[in-house]
Amino acid sequence: MTFEYVRVHCVFAGIRVVHYSNNRFYMLPTPQNDPFSTALQRCGVPEQETGPWSVWLERAIEQYKLDLDREAFEAKGGAPLVAKELNAFHRSLRRCNDPKVAAKRVAQLSPEACTFITMRLRLQTPPIHEIDGVNLGKPADVDALVAAVGDARSWLGGKPGSEHKPALRCLVRSVASVYAHSTGKAPGISSSQTTLGLGYMTPFEELLSATLVEAGASRSPEAIRSLYRAMERGKPKK
After folding, report:
1. Measuring CA to CA, which residue among 95, 96, 135, 88 is closest to residue 113?
2. How far is CA 48 from the centre of its chain?
3. How far apart are CA 92 and CA 105, in angstroms?
4. How far apart are CA 229 and CA 231, in angstroms?
5. Who's near 113: CB < 8 A, 6+ residues apart?
6. Best exposed site among 68, 134, 157, 175 by fewest CB in 10 Å?
């Protein structure tokens, strides 16, 4: 089942989106006091359909914040050790069928490992907000924990490369993807020679600006364009 199928067929009354995962559909809540509605409408998204796209933007911001945490952690040199711990825990968890043994192994995890597992549990569908909230006697919860540990392990253990861009550029890419899927158009940025004034922003630029503000990473219009161009080139902006 494609993302496009879910987008077109699974919006209920334009205010909630159905997320498809593990052969099941889940209703995602619409954000309160939606900070993206105005920008999405300027992009051409009908008002009644902005809620689902705002959910995706909020998830992108949450992922951005997790990426920032990872970058800070890696700067301290602790990532390889925790990745190794998560790798061992992931193997043992997949072999273990006893909830009591699994609970004992969870209790032995370092605080850092628990933090990164919790980050990934919150991105599961439906989300589990704390590692202590996992019911190890419930197969669905165990599957979610295994998936979260696997994601955290890959996330921390990944080598630098095209799949591991800096956090801010990953956020820009996510916003560009939301824009493309919600409008059916490619993101566009204005040129420095525009006759519409220095403060003019294209609909995509306004959406990106609103997302960056909400993420605590606001930029000027020209800085937003420079960031998007850097993301498009696939090279860090110096």
Report:
1. 88
2. 23
3. 8
4. 5
5. 82, 85, 86, 89, 152
6. 157
Residue 136 predicted with pLDDT over 60: yes
As a whole number, mean pLDDT of residues 54-71 equals: 88
Helices 50-75 and 203-214 pack at an angle, to 10 degrees, of: 50
Nearest to 57 by CA among 179, 195, 156, 206: 179
CB atoms within 10 A of CB 180: 13
In the block, tokens 């219009």 appear at 221
pLDDT of residue 212: 94
Question: Mean pLDDT over all residues of the chain?
Answer: 78
Give Cβ neighbours of residue 154 (< 8 Å, ≥ 6 apart).
Answer: none
What separation in angstroms does the CA of 62 have from each of 8, 90, 115, 180, 197? 24, 24, 14, 20, 33
Cis bond upstream, residue 126 (ω within 30): yes
pLDDT digits (tens, 9 = 90+) for 166-197: 688 889 989 999 999 999 999 988 875 555 66
Distance CA 182, CA 176 (A): 10
Tell me the three state secondary structure of residue 113: helix
Amino acid code (one letter) for 211:
T
Tokens 């220095």 sit on residue? 198
Closest CA to 4 of 204, 188, 182, 207: 182
Q: Which two tokens stand for residue 191?
A: 């040129």
pLDDT of residue 194: 54
